[in-house]
């Protein structure tokens, strides 16, 4: 069978790899944008400053646009210059949004090229709205763990994350994380019982031992600017595996404009245009898998409806995880030197138990190690010299909890399109309205977190908790949900479209509910499940 | 390939309007400072002063080159007070600190603060400045807290002095239309 797979993000590559291993032919399409190879693979973050001929350009970009200026109002993502390519989009791409600040990618590997590696299986409560349960997903979680390498262990957070096979030993803790875990050990009963506050090791797709040509984490402190050892998994590694198959036809540099609908309304391929301009081409197959990310996939579906029926369709149910950033100061770490040679992303996780299990609140702790400090220093209410002095003393004590909240499909969160000028693709329209219950939910969780951090000897500076805009978590989902019903804009439990047979949707668009956990691991596992069971 | 149209990440420095006469002792300084200084020489001077202010070290041709590049890409400020503040700040490290403390609260996105943050970003990626910016005498939490309290208290005093000095000037310049 010849299958056209659109997108090389986590869903696309794991679906494609499964199909190729089953002997199918795969045409794999993406925007094809790639970034530079990280320099000096064995050099630490700070040593790069000493050894690179032009360090400011490397860390801040050729045009120094990586500097965070006081006037910058946009949400801060900390994207380093070498990863800017991930967010490049074709000149023809347009969107408008209300209440939602989305990110898009036409990169090889998609938006997950800049993820932070969190791998958290959904449990039965979180899968209650899905047409399958945790038992069905577990072998696929294990399969993905085997493919990408996940570190973690069974600890207090296992009550929230089911344990699957294939976990590697966890990464080495930095001194700040060690300090937090020691204090948690002493206060555990109080934190668990009084606050429903649990702490433990994260599960992250970062190798603690060599695997498949990728090297184990060497604690260089370069996670954010780009791991030079391939220790932190990105979908481009699986894409490399796919391309090695003779049966894989990789077509980079294309933007899929719409589906090719054949006799009987069957999806038989796609129409795609080169991202740098040029005529549309037709790519055909026996089946099509859309894995362009929930927004990209939805845009393709809506554009197809417009082309086939002349109808402007509106789909509801857009979801994303609300994120709240809570900075803290661990008083016990004040005055110590920060550990530059450390893993830079989340080593510890926090789980806040909720009365309804599906409303679990998920936190990831970043202890500040290597990072550019000017975005922080300029925020302190002092002159820069005094602020830098305070930051020096406080550096090793600084941390950040990124709280994630679940989301549900609602009618007032919509995606539609606006027809473009002749020869131009339609504009994507997004509208998001938060749940009326959200403010109280956020307030409760933030209070619980502050109480927990206080018990651990940490203070949360007043006025610095930041509620991120919707869209910032980049966990988009919900527009074409899996369901047992029969609506045309729903999919079967295998993600097959009820409008166009032969079309399968492998990304977050099919999620009927969005748990608080990072969805990427489940995206991969579900894509493997779909390819394994439906093809 | 470009960013999506709705993403506007261009840095902006809001300008200020021109103003009317102020106190006599400031008139001469304002007269020379109210137009943007010519780029190269003034940028070299302010880079040297600001580098000493932030790190205590002399600048280098490399830092100057990157600073000039960054400043060249910033929108020029046509605000009279911003230019006054910039010129005063560039005239010596003690004045830089005063002007910076004032700008932190009253001109947080103005030209001075923007340039200082720009230079700080360059310095923290460049040896030997990054080591200087990170250098710490390790201590226990109590001593560290005392140090932080001392730094904050000194910074607050500087901010109060700066407000007493510059606030009237800003009000005067705002009144000159």
Task: Tell me briefly what this model is.
With 535 residues, chain A is an alpha/beta fold. Chain A has helices spanning 10-21, 45-51, 55-60, 134-148, 175-195, 235-243, 294-309, 374-377, 384-394, 438-455, 520-534, and strands at residues 2-6, 25-30, 95-98, 150-151, 167-168, 197-201, 248-252, 254-261, 267-274, 281-284, 287-290, 315-316, 323-330, 348-352, 361-367, 398-404, 407-408, 414-418, 427-431, 458-459, 466-467, 503-505, 513-514. In chain A, a hairpin with a 6-residue loop joins strand 9 (267-274) and strand 10 (281-284).
Describe this structure in words.
- The complex is a heterodimer of chains A (535) and B (177).
- In chain A, a hairpin with an 8-residue loop joins strand 18 and strand 19 (427-431).
- The longest helix of chain A is centred in the middle third of the chain and has 21 residues, at 175-195.
- Chain A has helices at 10-21, 45-51, 55-60, 134-148, 175-195, 235-243, 294-309, 374-377, 384-394, 438-455, 520-534; strands spanning 2-6, 25-30, 95-98, 150-151, 167-168, 197-201, 248-252, 254-261, 267-274, 281-284, 287-290, 315-316, 323-330, 348-352, 361-367, 398-404, 407-408, 414-418, 427-431, 458-459, 466-467, 503-505, 513-514.
- The termini of chain A are close together.
- Chain A is 25% helix and 19% strand.
- Chain A is built from eleven helices and 23 strands.
- In chain A, the strands form six sheets. In chain A, strands 6, 13, 14, 15, 16, 20 and 21 form a seven-stranded antiparallel beta sheet that branches. In chain A, strands 7-2-1-11-22 form a five-stranded parallel beta sheet, covered by helices on one side.
- Chain A is α/β, with parallel strands linked by helices and 535 residues long.
- Chain B contains eight helices and no strands.
- Chain B has helices spanning 24-33, 39-55, 61-73, 80-89, 93-106, 111-123, 129-134, 141-175.
- In chain B, helix 2 (39-55) crosses helix 3.
- The longest helix of chain B has 35 residues, at 141-175.
- Chains A and B meet through helix 2, helix 3, strand 3 and helix 9 of A and helix 3, helix 5, helix 6, helix 7 and helix 8 of B.
């Amino acid at each position: 069978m010849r299958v056209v797979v659109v997108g090389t993000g986590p869903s696309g590559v794991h679906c494609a790899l499964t199909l190729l291993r089953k002997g199918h032919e795969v045409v794999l399409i993406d925007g094809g944008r790639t970034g530079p190879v990280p320099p000096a693979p064995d050099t630490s973050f700070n040593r790069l400053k000493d050894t690179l001929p032009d360090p400011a350009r490397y860390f801040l970009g050729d045009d120094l646009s990586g500097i965070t200026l006081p006037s910058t109002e946009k949400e801060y993502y900390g994207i380093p210059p070498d990863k800017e390519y991930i967010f490049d989009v074709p000149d023809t791409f347009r969107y408008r949004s209300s209440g939602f600040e989305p990110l898009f990618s036409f990169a090889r590997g998609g938006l997950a090229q800049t993820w932070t590696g969190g791998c958290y299986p959904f449990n039965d409560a979180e899968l209650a709205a899905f047409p399958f349960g945790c038992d069905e997903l577990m072998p696929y979680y294990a399969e993905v763990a085997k493919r990408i390498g996940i570190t973690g262990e069974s600890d207090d957070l296992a009550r929230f994350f089911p344990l699957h096979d294939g976990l590697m030993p966890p990464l080495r803790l930095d001194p700040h994380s060690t300090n937090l875990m020691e204090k948690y050990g002493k206060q555990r009963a109080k934190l668990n019982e009084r606050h429903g506050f649990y702490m433990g090791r994260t599960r992250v797709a970062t190798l603690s031992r060599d695997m498949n040509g990728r090297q184990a984490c060497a604690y260089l402190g370069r996670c954010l600017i780009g791991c030079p050892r391939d220790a932190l998994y990105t979908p481009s590694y699986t894409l490399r595996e796919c391309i090695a198959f003779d049966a894989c036809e990789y077509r980079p540099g294309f933007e899929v404009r719409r589906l090719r609908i054949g006799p009987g309304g069957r999806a038989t391929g796609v129409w795609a245009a080169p991202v740098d301009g040029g005529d549309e081409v037709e790519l055909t197959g026996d089946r099509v898998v859309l894995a362009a990310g929930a927004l990209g996939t939805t845009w393709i579906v809506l554009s197809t409806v417009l082309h086939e029926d002349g109808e402007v369709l509106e789909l509801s149910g857009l979801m994303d995880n609300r994120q709240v950033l809570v900075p803290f100061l661990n008083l016990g770490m004040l005055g110590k030197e920060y550990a530059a040679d450390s893993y830079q992303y989340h080593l510890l996780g926090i789980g806040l138990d909720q009365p309804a299990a599906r409303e679990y609140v998920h936190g990831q702790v970043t202890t500040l190690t290597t990072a550019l400090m000017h975005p922080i220093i300029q925020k302190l209410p002092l002159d820069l010299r005094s602020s830098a002095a305070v930051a020096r003393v406080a550096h090793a004590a600084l941390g950040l909890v990124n709280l994630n909240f679940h989301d549900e499909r609602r009618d007032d969160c919509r995606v539609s399109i606006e027809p473009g000028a002749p020869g131009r693709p339609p504009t994507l329209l997004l509208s998001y309205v938060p749940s009326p219950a959200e403010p109280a939910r956020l307030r409760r969780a933030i209070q619980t977190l502050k109480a927990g951090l206080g018990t651990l000897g940490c203070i949360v500076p007043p006025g610095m908790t930041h509620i991120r805009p919707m869209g910032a978590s980049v966990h988009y989902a919900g527009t074409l949900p899996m369901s047992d019903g029969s609506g045309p804009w729903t999919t079967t439990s295998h993600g097959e479209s009820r409008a166009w047979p032969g079309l399968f949707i492998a990304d977050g668009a099919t999620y009927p509910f969005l748990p608080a956990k990072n969805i990427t691991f489940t995206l991969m596992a579900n894509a493997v499940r779909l390819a394994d069971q439906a093809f | 390939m470009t960013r999506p149209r709705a993403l506007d990440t261009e840095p902006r420095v809001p300008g200020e309007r021109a103003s009317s006469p102020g106190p006599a002792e400031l008139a001469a300084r304002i007269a020379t400072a109210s137009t943007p200084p010519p780029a190269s020489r003034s940028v070299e001077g302010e880079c040297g002063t600001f580098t000493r202010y932030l790190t205590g070290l002399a600048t280098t041709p490399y830092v100057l080159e990157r600073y000039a590049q960054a400043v060249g890409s910033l929108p020029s400020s046509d605000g009279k007070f911003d230019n006054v503040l910039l010129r005063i700040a560039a005239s010596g490290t003690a004045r830089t600190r005063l002007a910076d403390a004032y700008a932190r609260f009253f001109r947080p996105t103005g030209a001075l603060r923007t340039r200082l943050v720009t230079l700080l970003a360059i310095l923290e990626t460049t040896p030997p400045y990054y080591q200087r910016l990170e250098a710490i005498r390790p201590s226990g939490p109590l001593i560290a807290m005392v140090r932080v309290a001392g730094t904050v208290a000194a910074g607050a005093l500087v901010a109060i002095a700066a407000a007493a000095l510059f606030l009237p000037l800003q009000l005067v310049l705002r009144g000159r239309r």
